[in-house]
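Supplementary Methods, section 5.1.

A reviewer requested that the exact input to the structure prediction be made available. We therefore reproduce it here, unchanged from the version used in the analyses.
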Amino acid sequence: MATDIAKTRDKIQSEVFEWLKTTRYASTSLEPLTGGSANFIHKATLTSPLDDGSIEVVVKHGEPYMAVAPANKISVARCNIEAECFKALSDFTVTQEVDFHATDQVVTFHASVRTPKLLLYDDLTNTQVMEYLPKSTNLKAYINWHLNSAAPAELKSQCHALGKAIGQYISAFHHNTDAKLRETLKANSQMQSLKHMINYDWMLDRVGRFPEILGDAKSIFTAVKEMALKELEHEKDLKITHGDLWPGNILIADVSLQQLSSAETPVIITDWEQAQLGSPALDHGEMLGELFAFHLFKKFDSGLWIAQGYMEGLGELGEEQKWRNALQIGVHLIAFGPIAGWVAEDEEGQKEKGRVVEIAKELIVNAWEQKTEWFKKGEGNMFAFLI
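The structure derived from this sequence is encoded token-by-token as follows.
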């Protein structure tokens, strides 16, 4: 199987290289990039630089199957959907600024959130050419390296600004009224079904894995799943959503926040191929769930700082939306927390997973029953800013 996948990758790489010769982006080399499972992604070194001097671009190619598992079929509609998102958002940027002290001077941190610049999309070959961001990393790796448990409290304001800019950006996307984009996203029903399955079916599957912890909440979990299914029945009430909004799909320069000052810091939201009509809570729950996981599993305060900024960036929310977001964070922590590699796969790691799963269960139960008092004390207090 591994040999077949390697042959497939080599064949696709050769075809993409030849296709690039027919475009402005003819290249001297193609280098496979890590990340992503559905598409073939390469960094291309151009034979001649672009107008801005760039000599590298990203080339993303889709086939009617998953790149990491060619036996698994998947619609190429995802490629057109991502390209349409890039086009709709090409001129949209959200910036947050905050002043902070660095040595003996005050400097300004500018977080500027946008999508990658789409340079070319060919719908006949399902291939995109987009800007390459050198010396960048995804936000999950960034938090692990630059904002871990050793991160000083002085970085709280920058973390808050970063989260707020991301929250403002995705909130504006959810409220986008572009009729063409909405119609395009309607076609992504396959991803809509997948999104539901990996959240609510996986949440219920965890009851079997942690029966002593989750068994007493199974009826509420089932009710949450049924509620989410009913949401999909009312298409006119659904918003356009990213579909896979988590720190791993957000790029930022791979230098410390202290160094990201006095100049615009691009924060790039990538991988829009799962964009779909849905509840905004699924985007918020995934993003915030991952940020809370940094605090719950690794004791990183930065996870909470960014999450608090993100919530502020969403602006004024109705009561039902607040409860829905809280529910979805719990769903994400239960569905993905035990499998995401947060802790070692040993006895102690299993205990830690159980501890986090139990907190997530309480979050779901109390959000479902809308018990505000739980959020004012104990473990619930860390979630107080959600309500």
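The CA atoms of residues 22 and 46 lie 13 Å apart. These observations are discussed further in the main text.
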